[in-house]
Amino acid sequence: MRLIYFLLLYILVFNPLLSQNINLLDQEQIDRFKQVYGNIKTINSLSVGTRNDNINNFDSLDNIEYIGRLSFIHPLESLKSLSGFKNFRKADFVSLFMSPNDSLSFPVLDTVGWIWMKNTAHPNISIRPTYFKNTKYITETLTLDGNLTLEDFPYFAHNTSLTFDFMRFNNLDSFRLKNNRFERIKGIYISGNNNVSYTGFRQLDHVNYFILDKNSNCDLKMVILIKSIKKFEYRKHEAINIFGEGFKHIYVIDSIKFTKNKVMPPFTDIFPNPLLINDRIYIEENPNLTSITDFNNIYIYPGFEDSIVIRNNRQLNNCNVDFLCKALEYMPERTVIRNNGDGCTIEEIRKYCLVNTSDLQTDKTSVFPNPTDGYFKIDGLGDHAYIYKLYHPDGRIISTGHIQKNHSIDINNLERGVYLIEVFSSDSRDSVVHKIVKMH
Fold it and tell me: If residue 44 lies in a helix (H) or strand (E), which one and from where to where?
């Protein structure tokens, strides 16, 4: 029994991973750290500071190498040095309040999972944080809360699972990044921004998700850089935002969601091209939305995976769009249209569908053979000529021309990959989009 007691005591005092959460409220508690906790090297959670602190150094923490969660509760205006963190190399999460005069940096902090920097005390000043000048890797999320620029930030990896959170920026004519080129990132979340121009990016090839929440008068023309995206959300906006040429290179996306917006730009300002959606379409609780005819560049296939929901848009009276005709044909049980205006009901949409059937329908046309080694046809065409456009995966138009029934299109000169072909109806009012897989 005595042996168990001493083993527990040893684990508490000398264990390299201290499981308890530590709160250091002032300089006195920091100075007594080693006396209380010994020469530990890792901590699960460490919170530092109070609103009226006088913290100026962390010298007693000089053995710490890893902190699971490090939080500076308030700006440390009196802090003179971070040399006490001279062995601090890794953290899962670091949260800091920024001050205009901050010029300190963690000496050897190499890797952080999530960094959350806050400038909520000085909303009219743009702060250039220096804490992470020596940090090489951010593996999960970078959250900037308040006006902050990253000109003194380390270079991020160009191919990363990083998520950017940009929150509560105000009146910035340019958001600048030291490293502004990304081949692949996990996502971008922009929330509570007012009058901000996101012109600092130079490359954003592949983004898993792009979420916009409660922004106003923001310049989001950088979306033109994005070559592929899986998910887009636009929610809780009360003022207009500018998209420039929009997602100019996007022709395919998994899901879109527009919810609780008092003001919405035309859908074609955001997605100007024919847009094939694979998984989910949600348009909900937009109180001033009266029509979705600008969504008529959307296409769906019979294999649409999830659901289409258009509900609780009280003033929405025009839902006459072709993709809803297809939805009610392909998957009526997964198409939810309710609690909108009197003109946006399943009954009214079916009336529209009866009199607006195109001579060109996705379910009656197909690409054959697909995959192909070089030649393919469009089955299901009528007896007249149709205009087509062939698109590269990045959105560039490769070729245009005319095609008729039983005629072939030659793509032998194209590299192996997935392409899109858009075929226009005889009156050029409607079109269908098909994927083509080039094998060799």
Answer: strand 42-48
pTM of the model: 0.80
Residue 65 has pLDDT above 90, yes or no: yes
* Four-CA torsion 169, 227, 360, 428, nearest 10 degrees: 70
Amino acid at 173: D
pLDDT value of residue 300: 85
Residue carrying structure tokens 């530990």:
40
pLDDT class of 37 with cuts at 50, 70, 90: confident
Answer with the residue of higher pLDDT: 387 or 430: 387
CA distance 332 to 327: 6
List the CATH code of the domain at 367-438.
2.60.40.3080
Does position 154 have pLDDT exceeding 90, yes or no? no
Could you tell me where the beta strands, DSSP code E, fall in 192-328? 194-196, 203-213, 228-235, 252-259, 275-284, 298-299, 307-311
State how far the alpha carbon of 301 is from the alpha carbons of 97, 219, 253, 393, in Å.
49, 33, 12, 18
Q: Report the C-alpha gap between 96 and 86 in whole angstroms.
A: 18
Cis peptide before 369 (omega within 30 of 0): yes
Phi, psi of 278 (to 5 degrees): -95, -25
**Domains in the chain: boundaries:** 15-355, 367-438
The Cα–Cα gap between 287 and 188 comes to: 26
Q: Dihedral angle at the C-alpha atoms of 115, 121, 127, 130, nearest 10 degrees? A: -40
DSSP state, 124? T
Placement of tokens 């083993």 in the chain: 7
Q: How far is CA 86 from the centre of its chain?
A: 35
Q: What angle do CA 108, 114, 116 make, to 5 degrees?
A: 95
SS3 state at 99: coil
Place of tokens 């969601």: 257
- B/e letters for 340-359, b = 16+ CB within 10 Å, e = fewer, are bbebbbeebbeebbeeeebe
Q: Quickly tell me which residue has 């959307």 as its tokens.
A: 298
Which residues are within 8 A (CB) of 240 and not within 5 positions of it... i.e. 6 or more apart?
216, 217, 263, 265
